[in-house]
Every structure is written in C-alpha cells, then in structure tokens.
Amino acid sequence: MKNYSTTILANHEISPGYFRMKLLAPGIKAQSQPGQFIMIRPQTGLPTMLRRPFGILRCGFLPAECDGLPEREYLEILYKVVGKGTTFLSELHAGDRAEVLGPLGRGFDLGAIGTEKILVGGGIGLVPLYLLAETLIERGGKVRVLIGGRTRDDILCVTEFERLGVETYVSTDDGSLGEAGFVTNVLKRKLDKYPQAEVFACGPMPMLAAVAHICSVDHVPLQVSLEAHMACGVGACLGCVVKGVGHSDSNPRYLCTCKAGPVFSAGELDWGRMESQSESCTKGCA
Amino acid sequence: MTNVNNKRPNLAVEIAGIKLKNPVMPASGTFGYGEEYAPFLDLNSLGAIVTKGLSLNPKAGNPTPRIAETTSGMLNAIGLQNVGIDAFVQSKVPYYRGITTPIIANFFGNTLEEYGEVARKLNDVPEVTAVELNISCPNVKQGGIVFGTEAAAASQVVSLVRKALNKPLIVKLTPNVTDITVIARAAEEAGADAISCINTITGMAIDIRTRQPKIANRTGGLSGPAIRPVAVRMTHQVVQAVKIPVIGIGGIMCAEDALEFLIAGATAVQVGTANFIDPAAMMAVIDGLERFLIEEGLDDIRQVIGSLQV
Fold first, then answer.
1. Taking the model in full, what pTM does it have?
2. A2-104 in CATH: which number?
3. Cα separations (Å) of A87 from A90, A92, A157, B68?
C-alpha cells in the first residue's frame, strides 16, 4: 500500500448522480487484488477533511504517448454523490490533484478454479466486482454477474462487464430496466440451476443480508464486500467496525471493515445483528 | 537547507525524565498500537509512540456509526474499544522490542481499583517507558462523575496511580470543565510528572433528514482543526498554572500548528486526527519544525518553547 499525490485524468457523470474518476496510479496493477479499496481526498481547497473510501473499479495502463513517455498506470473509481465529500469530489476536473492511500484491506478470495461463479452487485456495489470478474475470467471458468438497482439510472457498466465475456442479468425494483424485482430473486433462480456455484456480493446491507440468508439456506459459499464510514483506512480509528460471528457484549468481536475486510466470508459476520444496522450508502460513502 | 553553522538544529526535548528525539508523538487512539502505521513512516523517527487507551478488561466499544466528519473536525464515540491490558502485553508489546522510540501506554479505568490494577500491571512491562493516564472517564462507583471534571476526584485517581506506578506519569486532561487549571494543579499536587491537554471536546451532530444523531452514542468527542484555538488557549492556561511539563494536543495538522502550542509553552505535542487524513502527517510536522528553526536562525527547539510574547 502506498500514500501518494497524483493527478486526476478524468471525472465524468455517467448516470444521474454517479461519477467515474480516473487517476494516475503507479504500480496499482501489481499491488492490488480485486475487492481492495483506496482512500482519497482532493489536495487543495478542502471543504472536507477526511479521506473517503472507494472500491477500485478498474486499473490498467494508458497507451504510450507518441512523445516516447512510458506507459502510465491508472485506476478508476465509480462513486455516487451522497454527501459533502462526494459532492466536492464530483466538482474536480482533469488535471486537479488528489491524495491517494492504498490499495487497502483484504480483497476477494478467488475460490476454486473452474467452479461456477455468481457475482451479485446492488447499485454502486457493482464497483468492486469488475476487477473480480476480470480476474476470474482470466483464470478460466464461467462467471455470471447479477446487477440490481432501484431504477435504470442505478444500473451501471453493463456493457463493460459483457465485454469481459461474462453473462449479465439486470433487474430493477421498478422494472425500468431488465427484470422487475429484487436481484435476490434472480440469485435464487441461478442457484437452483447452479447449486455448486460460489457467490460474491456487494451492495446495500439489506441486499447483502438477503443474499447471505439465501446462500446459507443453500449451503453456498459467499463472500461479501462491506462498506462503512471510516477515518483512517488502516485499522487505527476503529470507526468502521462490524460485528463478527459470536459477538456479544461480554465477548466483543468487532472487526474493522478496513483491515479485516472490506471483503468477508459470510460466515465471519453476525448477520442477525447486521440487518438492524443502518442501510449504509455504498462504496463512496458521504 | 543549511543554516549558518551547517549543523542540524536540535529538536530533542525531555519530559518527566524521558528523552524524546523530537517533540512530536501521536495522540492516543489515533495511531493504533503503532504497528498499523509502520508501512507509512519510520516509527523510530517519532518523539514517542502513544498507544490506544488500555483498560483492565477488553472493551467492546460503542455501536456504530461511531464517527462523523464535521466542519474542520470529526466527532467520535468509539467507546475506548481495546484488547485489554493482558492481551496488549502478550500480543502488542513484543513488537516494541524492535523500536527505539519511547513507548507511552495510555490507560483508563471506570473505578479507582481498575486504574490501580492496570498501573501495577504496566510496572512489569519494561518496553513501556511511561504512562499517560486518561481521566476523562466516568467513575461508575460514584454515580458516573467523570474523574477529570472534579479536582478531588482527579486528585484521588492520580495519587492512587502515582503510588501504584514506578514509571513517569503523564495525566491527560479533559477540556469539558469550567476551569482546566484547577484540575491541572490537582494532578500536579497528586504527583503527575507531566500534563497532556486537551482530550476531545464533547459535541453532537444531527442528520437533518433522519432527525437522528449522526453517531449512535448521540454525543462524541470533537477533534481536528476545529478545536485547535481552544486547545492552544487551554495549553497556555495550564502552562501558567503548573510547573511540570505540558504536552499540547488539539487539531495539529502541520508544523505551524505545532509551533503555536510550543510557543504557548508546551514541551511537546501530540498529533491526532491528522494521522487519519495523512498517515505520514507527523513526519511533515517534524520536518517543518526543523525548517522553522533554520529559517528563524535558531539551533534548538527549546528556544521556541514558551517564547510567547504578550
């Protein structure tokens, strides 16, 4: 993990309220695992102070310049404007500077080679699944991505996933795109058909709790990527904790989302208590 | 970067008999147990390392959300989550054997007995150079009165710990009092070797859409640059009130901020919230202090300490 200042290459609104930002990120490809995140803050003119955590959407190399400059590495984040921090971030332009800390946290365990993989993304929760899908495809094997959102505006990057060679299934709560209803309905059908699958999910907490319930009933391995408000990203502030399995007041088992996660095996978490926790925003909180 | 003598200025200071290579250390609770920040800075270049607050038994901490950013600051109500003194000694202390920087263990209790017991346990840990006593906790046996908000209670806990402890004792004061100098003097008279001030200022923030407090505990401790002028003022007052050294804390983001506390008379400073924003923040503070001395043509940080002109 590194702590560096860098340049923003692009920052565009790709759907109402959703922005995609590209930044120079030397060495990111070799260092990062699917599911890890970065902490970022603009370098100047700050109305906010703390960095914000964002899942890494993609990383790669910019084409070499004709002037002979070496290939430069970039990373992309995709975020929803939900508060002051993300509003300010959305107002930055190419050429502005930002401070990046990362990659941070524990990414996805890629699971067994060759088994069916089902990725479930709710809204902005789709973000950390792209690198995962790309990596799983590179390893070989079937990858299906179930993409859910409230409306068509919340369905992101479908074409990009399809270009990877994964099968995509879209559902919206209001039926404005794809199947009408929750993404969890699609998941149930897919698991009936592919009971040997491994599931990877990221999205709002009620969706994750529903996915966890389905997978536990079907005895299907599940990893979830969580998000939380956090100040430091490195396990010091203890602001981002979630309750681990077996947690009680007399035997506290708090896990730092930033360090023990953001990806957890579903069995590590106390789902009974999770549902009552606030429906947090997504990767790109506040 | 050369001064006239072509010699690097001295940044070393001494607090309660502990020699610090510079006056910069993290504030308790913002730096984990130190190890968490090793990837970002050289722990051996800090003046000291101050641990997360320890208690006799492991502490679960508060429900979430525990933090909220506010204008130029943040509120936190972590609830002093920590592994407990025994787990600290077993699993965290061995790491300190590879570090030359003095280790200051911060601890707290909810009864006088707990304070005493933790102090006695820390006596047997040679890796811990000194302790910092957090007296911003409620005394559960005395109707929840916060030790540090009442001179008699502060005096009682400090003198109890002083008797139990064979290491230098730093007492960390809460700013949530009418007159901090009264508590500072009580701590000094009860045997404190140094004072650190200030802890966070109690605050509250509300989400206007949900009508709920932004943190689950309703209120939390405000930190960050928002509190710095209050902290500088209190440091100045405490420096006037006591003869023991003072460590200034409150919203230090850069060397210039640290210098305000030093000029006010603090012998050292603690950097807190800034560690969250930039894990290498303390390095910039240390470098900036050296640069300031060179710019001012000074060769010793002690020429700056207490140099306030009024």
1. 0.90
2. 2.40.30.10
3. 5, 9, 21, 16
